[in-house]
Amino acid sequence: MLDRLVATPKRHGMTVRQVAEERFAWGLLGPTLLAACVILALPLVFSLYLSFRVWDLSVVPSRLTWVGLQNYAGLLHGEEFWRPLRFTLLYTFCSVLGEFVLGFALALLLHRATVGRTVFTTLLVLPMM
Predict the structure, then answer these.
(1) pLDDT tens, 98-122?
(2) What 3-state class would DSSP assign to 109?
């Protein structure tokens, strides 16, 4: 009878203490998450705003002229975009392939080696600590 009269805040089978701890955790995390979102979102939105306008450092941002997608169209037709993009893709492919081959070779060597195996494994893992 008493159980029906006393309201216990249960969410998904949580006790009162667990609900209080969850609220406390969100109270601590909330301002930090809000600040992180603002710090990340404001520069992103401002950069997107500037990308649709003619940008010059000598012009006040309130007097920028709207050009729409012309900046992006000019970027796709110019060689100053495609050459660095090709270089970046080639560099990424070569570095990932090199790291994969080197890591795979070291893994095979460590798998077969019996003498000094723990020393080499320690030396490889030590920089990551």
Answers:
(1) 999 998 998 888 888 778 888 888 8
(2) helix
* 22: Cβ contacts below 8 Å, ≥ 6 apart: 14
Per-residue pLDDT tens digits for 4-54: 544 555 567 788 898 899 999 999 999 999 999 899 999 999 899 888 988
- The residue among 48, 73, 72, 52 whose CA lies nearest residue 64 is 52
Residue the block writes with tokens 């992103």: 44
- The DSSP secondary structure of 44-103, one letter per residue, reads HHHHHHHHTB---TTS-GGGPPB-TTHHHHHHHHSHHHHHHHHHHHHHHHHHHHHHHHHH
Rg of the chain, C-alpha, whole Å:
28
pTM: 0.55
